[in-house]
User: Fold CAZy families GH95 protein from uncultured Brachybacterium sp.
Amino acid sequence: MAYWPAEVAALPETHEALIGWLRASRESLRRATR
Assistant:
């Protein structure tokens, strides 16, 4: 899904799940990129 237009379309709640997932997986993603 394309999340980039969420703020422009005044639908910030549509990308809250993505932001939550990114915050929850931040540490494991950081380790994976090293």
The longest helix spans residues 16-24. The mean pLDDT is 81. DSSP finds two helices and no strands in the chain. Residues 22 and 28 are 10 Å apart (CA to CA).
